[in-house]
């Protein structure tokens, strides 16, 4: 984590003085090399810490929403005063604060298996997990399209940095009550119906953004973030931790991040700009809505399809214990709608 944060700070400093487009692309690529791994690492640390202290992971994750909401609003006002040209220096300051906090975090004991690609491949051959990643990828394309062009949409509608900050505040704060509710009652509802619901809420959200005619409407629409991302995030992490053994949790979270952020961001960024420029905002969000609907159909079809029970995963250096195999089987039964 320390290395990743230091890398972010260095790349942000380089980016702040870069002027050539080719150099900027290269620096951003290296920046994301240090940026995206923070998410699976921090989530893994939070999950292990919550388990060790008999706490719910979601109650820990709520502080991430609070921090995001605060900085979304705070940065909007700061940039309105100092100018958007100073954005990277603000980012460096925030990364430096995170680095200082990380100095007080200790490594946590958790079950770890030796790196064995054949064992990981044995886990990835689970049909349930591949189906899950496929649906997540489809939904992620839609989400990354919105993430990349929401600011462009707001700017086109005449929004200032303050309004953009308020839109981010509305979305992040709306997560908190959903996180609390799901931490208390989420286990009573099976994962796949919740994922279907979240995907449909994403589709509704993108449709509304596509037809909105003012920045104020989009800020209001951002409140749907609660029943779309809030429900999806909690439920997807819950399902992932049940499908993957504890000692491969960090690897599973890394694969999840690749699907949810990296690969989907690459694809959506490649054709998203073309669609937005050539066909306009409305058609752009219709495409995003279509990907979200496709994901909902994928989750729904898995819910109604009773696949085979999960078997004990074996491979070179990997063999689930009886307790882990029972947990995996239970997760399979729940996820196909027993």
TrEMBL record:
Protein keywords: Cell inner membrane, Cell membrane, Membrane, Transmembrane, Transmembrane helix, Transport
Protein known as: Major facilitator superfamily (MFS) profile domain-containing protein
Membrane topology: Multi-pass membrane protein
Domain Major facilitator superfamily (MFS) profile: from-to ranges: 95-338
Transmembrane feature ranges: 26-50, 62-82, 88-105, 126-143, 163-185, 192-212, 218-241, 253-276, 282-305
InterPro entries: MFS_assoc_dom, MFS_dom, MFS_trans_sf
Location in the cell: Cell inner membrane
Pfam family, one: MFS_1_like
Predominant place of localization: membrane
């Amino acid at each position: 984590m320390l290395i990743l944060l230091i890398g972010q700070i260095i790349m942000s400093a380089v980016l702040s003085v870069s002027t050539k487009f080719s150099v900027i692309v290269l620096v951003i690529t290296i920046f994301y090399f240090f940026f995206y791994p923070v998410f699976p690492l921090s989530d893994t640390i939070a999950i292990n810490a919550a388990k060790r202290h008999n706490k719910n992971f979601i109650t820990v994750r709520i502080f991430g929403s609070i921090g995001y909401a605060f900085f979304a609003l705070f940065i909007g006002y700061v940039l309105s005063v100092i100018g958007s040209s100073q954005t990277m220096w603000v980012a460096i300051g925030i990364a430096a604060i995170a680095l200082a906090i990380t100095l007080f975090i200790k490594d946590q004991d958790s079950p770890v298996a030796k790196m064995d690609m054949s064992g990981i491949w044995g886990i990835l051959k689970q049909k349930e997990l591949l189906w899950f990643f496929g649906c997540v990828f489809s939904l992620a394309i839609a989400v990354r399209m919105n993430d990349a062009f929401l600011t462009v949409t707001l700017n086109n509608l005449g929004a200032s940095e303050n309004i953009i900050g308020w839109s981010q505040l509305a979305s992040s704060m709306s997560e908190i009550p959903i996180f609390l509710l799901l931490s208390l009652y989420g286990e009573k509802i099976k994962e796949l119906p919740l994922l279907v619901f979240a995907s449909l809420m994403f589709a509704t959200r993108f449709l509304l953004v596509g037809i909105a005619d003012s920045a104020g409407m989009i800020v209001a629409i951002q409140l749907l973030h609660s029943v779309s991302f809030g429900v999806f995030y909690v439920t997807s992490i819950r399902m992932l931790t049940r499908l993957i053994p504890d000692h491969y949790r960090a690897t599973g979270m890394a694969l999840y991040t690749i699907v949810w952020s990296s690969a989907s961001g690459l694809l959506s960024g490649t054709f998203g700009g073309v669609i937005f420029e050539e066909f306009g905002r409305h058609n752009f969000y219709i495409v995003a809505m279509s990907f979200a609907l496709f994901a909902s159909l994928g989750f729904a079809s898995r819910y109604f399809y009773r696949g085979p029970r999960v078997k004990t995963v074996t491979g070179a250096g990997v063999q689930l214990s009886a307790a882990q195999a029972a947990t995996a089987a239970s997760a399979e039964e729940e996820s196909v709608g027993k």
